[in-house]
Amino acid sequence: MKTNKAFKFRIYPNNQQKQYLAQSFGCARFVYNRFLRQRIDYYAANAKGLNYFDNSVALTQLKKQPEFEWLNDINSQSLQMSLRNLDTAYNNFFNKHAKFPNFKRKYNKQSFGVPQHFSIHDNKLDIPKCKDIKIKLHRAIEGTMKSITISKTPSGKCFASVLCELEIPEPIYSGGEIGIDYGIKAFITTSNGEIIESPKFLRKSEKRLQQLSKSFSKKQPSAKNRYKAQKLLARQHEKVSNQRQDFLHKTSIQLVSDNQAIYIESLAIRNMIKLHTLAKSISDSGWNTFVNMLKYKGDWYGCRIIEIDRWFPSSKRCHVCGYINDNLTLNDRSWLCPECNTNHDRDVNAAINILTFGRAGIART
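Now predict its structure.
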């Protein structure tokens, strides 16, 4: 079957290429923000919305105006990709998959898309109006290249993400099955009794982040040292993000490689982080990203990811006799079943229940 897979590489533009990329980032951001504002204002005035085609026609007219002729200096398809991204953000909002689109800021992550007319050869990347960008190909590119996204992190690093279409064999589902329970102290606990501790990368870097944030806030807005302090703070945030991504990738690939079915709870992360006492720990764990990784890697390696209903009492139910402990609180890490006298570890018991009822097709979403 066919699937899409992205390959991300570091690029090293020279000064002239950096200037063109900066111009492209700025134009893509300008188009996104301008037409987001136009959509908001149009809906407020007419009680109906604009779509991608309306914005595309307006962009063509905008580029003909003398005060906006600088938009013609970059690849026109990159500007169209900004409109596509805006339209996707709107659709995700109305489908209740994301919040309402935000305006893009200059000092956050920057990006623009190149859907056509790009190539990679001899460790060099060619895109329209900018050739021979040095690229570090640390692994082979598989499949057919469909599009490329150039991005820049707040710390100043540039990357090229190549989206490829490739053919993978139909997965064969057979073998081991496990249930997984999420936790705060432990990242996950499996029905086999395996506990993977939460690395808590953000917690461990909090002191350093506070120091850098305090240093940045003390700098004068126009001072050069403010720019240096901003870079140091961005690099520390990037380090935490990279550590978390590395941990999640390694954990997810290990689980889908060792099992042919994984049963998990369908958690409402957005609602859970509203509880301020646990919000930081939940965000630091990266559960939502972890579930997404399990799902797409499961398709690649032949592992089914099956979700059960979040309201299923997995922690409160004794997996031996079925007794429901309604008095169980979040602070109770273990409990004794009054009917069968089984001493339960809260998370292991929940993982076993998730496996049992998920395998039986009960309480699935």
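The first helix runs from residue 15 to 46.
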